[in-house]
Design goal:
Blueprint lengths: L1 E5 L5 H11 L3 E6 L12 E4 L16 E4 L5 H11 L5 E5 L30 H20 L3 E6 L1 E3 L9 H8 L13 E2 L1 E3 H13 L4 E5 L4 E2 L3
Helix pairs in contact: 1-5, 2-3
Length: 223
């Protein structure tokens, strides 16, 4: 396949590119060229801005798009609509944060998503989950059965810049007592970025569509 990756130079995007190349797909990157420019010197890299600077994508054809960097519905709509006639599948990386709450376990893809009263807001910091849900709706409205929505949980693994998971691993590895929030029996779910990237390429290769939760098995570990 010819795959366009919106992003591709940061954490999950890097794993997507590596996994796609490992399977002999042809990859094109579209980003601003500010994060790790030249990271993949033998991969075509187009530069622009998702908000009004998509000219480099016009007139090009790909079999699939993987959108790893969409957070605001207005901006996601720009790329979704521009590429609708030139790609077969649009895979949008969303989040399990879209769900309205986590009052129960075993939440599946039919569980209600969060809402925001002001659908014009672009405050990602405050409304991350509901805005991701609105982004999903944009992609589904434009692509219909050609839309693929992936909702990961906590993504871990190489290139993770956040330290939100590795901090705990280091502390436990030192063998000392560690103060952790919540109940020691609280279930935790993770997914390695490499596994997530592989899963997403599987979806495209199989020409799947729809919404998919993407997170690992539930683990309950006493501290």
């Amino acid at each position: 396949m010819k795959i366009l990756v919106l992003g591709g130079a940061h954490f999950l995007g890097r794993h997507v590119v590596e996994q796609a190349r490992h399977r002999d797909h042809t990859v094109t990157l579209f980003n601003r060229g500010q994060t790790a420019p030249g990271l993949f010197p033998d991969v075509e890299e187009l530069h622009g801005d998702r908000d009004g600077g998509l000219d480099a994508l016009r007139g090009r054809h790909w079999d699939a798009v993987i959108d790893t960097s969409g957070y605001v519905p207005r901006i996601v709509r720009q790329s979704a609509e521009l590429l609708a006639s030139f790609v077969s599948r649009y895979l949008f990386v969303s989040s399990i944060s879209v769900y309205a709450d986590f009052h129960r376990t075993h939440i599946d893809e039919t569980y209600p998503v969060g809402q925001v009263d002001d659908k014009t807001t672009e405050d990602v910091g405050q409304f991350y989950g509901p805005l991701k849900a609105l982004c999903e709706q944009v992609v589904e409205a434009v692509y219909g059965e050609r839309a693929v929505i992936v909702r990961p949980g906590l993504i871990v693994g190489p290139y993770d810049p956040t330290d939100r998971f590795t901090y705990w691993v280091r502390q436990f590895a030192r063998g000392s007592h560690v103060l952790v929030p919540g109940s020691p029996d609280r279930p935790v779910q993770l997914i390695d970025g490499r596994d997530l990237a592989s899963f997403m390429i599987d979806l495209l290769e199989n020409r799947d569509s729809g919404v998919f939760n993407a997170t690992g098995m539930r683990i309950a570990q006493r501290a």
